[in-house]
Design brief:
Layout: E1 9-13, H1 25-39, E2 43-47, E3 63-65, H2 71-81, E4 85-87, H3 92-104, H4 107-110, E5 114-115, H5 120-127, H6 129-138, E6 146-149, H7 152-161, E7 167-171, E8 181-183, H8 186-199, E9 205-209, E10 215-223, E11 229-237, E12 250-252, H9 259-275, E13 281-289, E14 296-302, H10 307-316, H11 320-328, E15 355-361, E16 382-388, H12 391-401, H13 419-427, H14 433-442, H15 447-454, H16 458-475, H17 484-492, H18 497-508, H19 513-522, E17 528-531, E18 545-549, E19 563-567, H20 578-593, E20 597-602, E21 617-620, H21 625-635, E22 639-641, H22 646-650, H23 653-658, H24 668-675, H25 677-686, E23 694-697, H26 700-710, E24 714-718, E25 728-730, H27 733-746, E26 752-756, E27 762-770, E28 775-786, E29 796-798, H28 805-821, E30 826-835, E31 838-845, H29 852-859, H30 863-871, E32 891-897, E33 918-924, H31 930-937
Parallel strand pairs: 1-2, 1-4, 2-3, 4-5, 18-21, 19-20, 19-22, 20-21
Antiparallel strand pairs: 6-9, 7-8, 7-9, 10-11, 10-13, 11-12, 12-15, 13-14, 15-16, 17-18, 23-26, 24-25, 24-26, 27-28, 27-30, 28-29, 29-32, 30-31, 32-33
Helix pairs in contact: 1-10, 1-11, 5-6, 13-14, 14-16, 15-16, 16-18, 18-19, 20-30, 26-27
Length: 945
């Protein structure tokens, strides 16, 4: 059956700001849905309040409403647009809950608006734990024993009936496991149940027997209107049951399922999907399997594209959201081509001849006293995906991708813990479990011992033990003695040159990464690049989507076009999130418009930059020096773009300079210079631009001496950090000593600044583009909160609302002076503190920033694209005047969102280190608006050191 012709205009509901449990994987899904519908001639209307996403970019939909995700907003848009249908499955739990609430009012039915892609009754069944339980009983699908409770008393009775503790709490209608968890002791029972009841919008929780330690699997399914079902991917959690799947290290395809077990789960998943309505679209099913037996239970089913759908799409190359959208408008699977191969059917289930590892990224260091134990409530802020020909290779690559300072799974100079500490750390699920399993093998533990403590399947443990055996063998070797076969085996297991150099340095004096690379080239050991094709190389693929491996022929053909390589921003984390991916996508488009072949390198499965059809070529690889250099040597681009990939890309800049590789835009020396707080302050002094009194310190005594000279309070600022990491305000000597010692622990290699903290100053953020002659100001944003709250955590307003004309003129004058004297070419962000008419420069960032997408959405100008074109040689005077003209006629306000609800034990305080996970944009008419009045009223409340 071809596309439906009874609908022409479709409303898509987005997922709003990035929060833990609902991140930019829905931006990716929503962007694919928009492209898919417009391809078929549908008119697309979109509502989403997130300015940082590509999904809300003008190129994605016919009409975009950057409005709060509320029922009122949706009704307002429906009145204006009169859509024929609504697609709610691309907006996570937010989109589904809004659609469901309006359906309960009969709103969609009364207006003859069809809900496509999901059966809302199915949502009720799957989200209401008791209804789901009853349905599974009806269709004979095994599940954990459980009952729903609406009070603490009822919960206690149910827990007794289930045989006592431990028990699992699962609130109804929440996402990312919010409010859920395992109750181990009587002491925590009441508190955890009460929290679950409060967080459930219907104030109901499921009390469930604990299957902690069982193996967990997820299946991604698609179904068409003819009831054809395909299984796209089976993902296995390496962490056993008890850890939210978003917090677990996972692997695809499943590695430890027997064929019999796989068929059982497959049949059960299809049966479950068919039992919850007749909708066509995507679905995610989770199961637990008892180790050592074939007993399994169904955990849950999500009748929509899920967090794992993005991972499954990038893992297989099969664009789940795109195909799910086509199915929602009437197509059958056998009518659609597979977009990857171009000549096979979308009905073909993907077959993959490699291994995928997904590793989550945490930001616990941002939240002092946080409980780091992983439970059924998600705590990760992002994730990476890696592709290898075997599990060890993919696992090492995942840890090279994570941006936690590691060169792989160990073997990189980090202090290894003592046996007792490792054992303690393994008793409970923590974020560093894989690293400590490696440490335990290094200390002589057995597979049986670690399996007993962690309940991780022995197959994975044997693989990690094999990796440690390679480490042990390499430690006794040198560059002169290592054989080609031994080095080849290390490379096939994913070990980086940096790891191999460290291992050899243990017994043979210092060996460098560069020396290992040279030895590898001497042996002619270079990676080949394999294509991700959905069909295990059975058919040729049309899409240029690659990963590296030390095996077989090279499948990446190099063209003779002029090329530019763009480095992505790696995993989402606090301080560096989806906003940088937005700039990456625009960098690709800008490069293409300037006549370049755009080559993207990134490892984040949640993003639009890693979609198979965004760049001319995508390398799904760690943004890690060795991997990037391998791609550079293969492709030979004219140069690289680093300024859109946040700190991830910039920290490789020095090595590009050493290799004589061209970096487009501002000279890297200037980018580096701006990060060196001391040198930059000297530069401002020469330009006669005011800045807070400061001094550069390298130890505690130096910091105290400076503070005594300039006076308290002072701000401690490490160099070369993003998101204000390690920054603190000290109001007395004891605090300064304590914070300085912490900075020395976390950033021992960096000198740091002690600045005079300007109390009661207004902070102003300015983004601009400079081309060597002209300055284009993208926006001057005034923070509502006082200076001292990180710009990413501040509520910011554009245009300014209380600055004097004199202060604004000074800001413009200083900005142009800094740009001209730093030879800026492209982006320049400067943060200012203003007291009356006095303006002080706090810091400068010659790169894309977190605020670029917000300004683009506020003003209607493609700021990232403008800047990247300037980096590639364009002049501002040659741009269309329309592109450089702001369309904002009132005020736009950026409102941050915080993850404090996920960390109830952490104090709500804001300071110079960023803590927000995302943001919304809101357009206001005047300052009586609650979005301005409330933050203004509370502006000083949470300011803390």
């Amino acid at each position: 059956m071809p596309r439906r012709n009874d609908i022409n205009k479709i409303l898509i509901i987005g997922s709003g700001p990035i929060v833990i449990g609902q991140a930019c994987e829905f931006d990716y899904s929503g962007s694919q849905a928009c492209k898919s519908l417009r391809e078929d001639g549908y008119e697309v209307v979109l509502i989403n309040s997130n300015p940082a996403t590509i999904m809300t970019d003008p190129m994605m939909a016919d009409e975009i409403y950057l409005k709060p995700l509320t029922e009122e907003s949706i009704k307002e848009i429906v009145e204006i647009e009169n859509p024929d249908a609504v697609l709610p499955t691309m907006g996570g739990q937010t989109g589904l809950n809004l659609t469901r609430n309006l359906q309960q009012e009969n709103y969609w039915t009364e207006r003859d608006i069809k809900i496509i892609g999901v059966d809302i009754d199915a949502v009720d069944i799957t989200e209401d734990r008791q209804q789901f339980r009853d349905l599974m009983d009806e269709i004979d699908i095994p599940q954990c024993r459980s009952r729903a409770a609406e009070s603490v008393l009822e919960a206690k009775e149910i827990a007794e009936d289930l045989g006592g503790l431990p028990i699992v709490i699962r609130p109804s209608f929440t996402m990312g496991g919010a409010g859920g968890g395992i109750v181990w002791t009587e002491d925590e029972f009441e508190k955890k149940v009460l929290r679950g009841l409060e967080m459930s919008p219907v104030h109901r929780v499921l009390i469930e027997e604990s299957i902690f330690g069982w193996k967990e699997y997820e299946l991604e399914l698609l179904r068409d209107p003819n009831d054809n079902v395909v299984i796209i991917c089976t993902v296995e959690n390496i962490d056993p049951m008890g850890v939210h799947t978003g917090d677990s290290v996972t692997v695809a395809p499943s590695q430890t399922l027997t064929d019999k077990q796989f068929q059982m789960l497959r049949d059960a998943a299809i049966k479950m999907m068919r039992s919850i309505g007749t909708f066509a679209g995507g679905c995610n099913v989770q199961f637990a399997v008892e180790p050592g037996s074939d007993r399994f239970v169904a955990i849950e089913i999500n009748p929509r594209v899920s967090r794992s759908s993005a991972l499954a799409s990038k893992a297989t190359g099969y664009p789940i959201a795109k195909i799910a959208t086509k199915l929602a408008v009437g197509y059958n699977l056998d009518e659609l081509p597979n977009p990857i191969t171009g000549n096979t059917s979308a009905c073909f289930e993907p077959s993959i001849d490699y291994v995928i590892v997904k590793a989550p990224r945490f930001n616990f260091e941002k939240f002092p006293n946080v409980d780091e134990e992983l439970t059924t409530q998600m705590k990760a802020v992002g994730e990476v995906m890696s592709i290898g020909r075997n599990f060890p290779e993919a696992l090492n690559k995942a840890y090279q991708s994570l941006e936690i300072g590691r060169s792989g799974l160990g073997a990189d100079g980090y202090n290894e813990l003592h046996r007792k500490e490792v054992r303690e750390r393994l008793k409970k699920p923590y974020w560093d479990r894989m690293l400590n399993i490696r440490n335990a093998f290094k200390l002589g533990a057995s597979v049986e011992e670690i399996a007993d403590i962690t309940k991780v399947d022995p197959w994975f443990l044997q693989q990690i033990r094999y990796m440690v055996s390679l480490e042990n063998r390499t430690e006794g070797q040198s560059l002169d003695t290592i054989s080609k076969d031994d080095l080849f085996e290390l490379k096939q297991a994913g070990f980086g040159d940096e790891q191999i150099a460290w291992l050899m340095s243990q017994s043979n004096g210092k060996v460098t990464e560069k020396e290992v690379r040279e030895k590898r080239h001497e042996f002619e050991l270079k990676p080949s690049f394999k294509v991700v094709d959905t069909c295990a190389a059975e058919f040729p693929a049309e899409t240029p989507y690659f990963y590296s491996a030390y095996e077989g022929e090279n499948e990446s053909e190099v063209t003779d076009k002029k090329k530019v390589m763009i480095l992505g921003s790696g995993p989402n984390r606090i301080g560096q999130g989806i906003e940088f991916d937005y700039s990456c996508v625009h960098a690709v488009k800008a490069a293409q418009e300037m006549g370049y072949e755009a080559i993207m390198v990134n490892c984040n499965p949640e993003t639009v930059s890693t979609d198979f059809d965004t760049a001319d070529k995508l390398y799904f690889e760690p943004v890690f020096w060795e991997r990037v250099m391998d791609i550079y040597e293969h492709e030979q681009p004219e140069g690289v773009i680093l300024q859109v990939g946040g700190q991830t890309a910039l920290k490789l800049g020095k090595k590009f300079v050493e290799e004589g590789i061209k970096i487009f835009g501002t000279d890297f020396e200037m980018i580096n210079f701006a990060e060196d707080r001391g040198s930059f302050s000297e530069f401002l002094k020469k330009l006669d631009i005011p800045f807070p009194s400061y001094g550069t310190a390298e130890d505690v005594d130096g910091a105290l001496e400076i503070a005594n000279r300039i006076g308290y309070p002072v701000l401690i600022r490490p160099s070369y950090v993003l998101g204000g990491q390690g920054m603190r305000i000290a109001v007395k000597q004891e605090e300064l000593e304590f914070y300085t010692e912490r900075v020395l622990d976390t950033h021992p290699e960096n000198a740091f600044l002690i600045d005079k903290f300007l109390e009661h100053a207004v902070e102003v953020d300015v983004d601009a583009v400079y081309d060597g002659d002209d300055l284009h100001i993208a926006g001057i944003m005034q923070h509502i909160e006082p200076a001292g709250v990180h710009s990413g955590d501040s509520t910011a307003v554009i245009p300014t609302y209380s600055l004097s004309d004199t202060a604004i003129e000074k800001i413009k004058e200083y900005h142009e002076k800094i740009a001209a004297n730093m030879n800026i070419k492209g982006f320049l962000n400067v943060q200012y503190a203003v007291k009356g008419d006095d303006v002080y420069v706090l810091e400068a960032n010659p790169r894309s920033t977190r605020t670029i997408p917000f300004l683009a959405k506020a003003t209607g100008r493609p700021e990232a694209r403008i800047a990247v074109k300037v980096m590639l040689g364009a002049k501002l005077k040659n741009f269309d005047t329309e592109d450089l003209t702001s369309k904002l006629d009132k005020w736009a306000i950026k409102e941050p969102v915080f993850p404090f609800d996920k960390f109830p034990e952490v104090k709500k305080e804001l300071g110079p280190e960023m803590k927000s996970t995302g943001e919304t944009i809101y357009f206001m008419e005047d300052f009586n608006d609650e979005h301005f009045k409330k933050p203004y009223e509370f502006k000083n409340l949470y300011l803390s050191k």
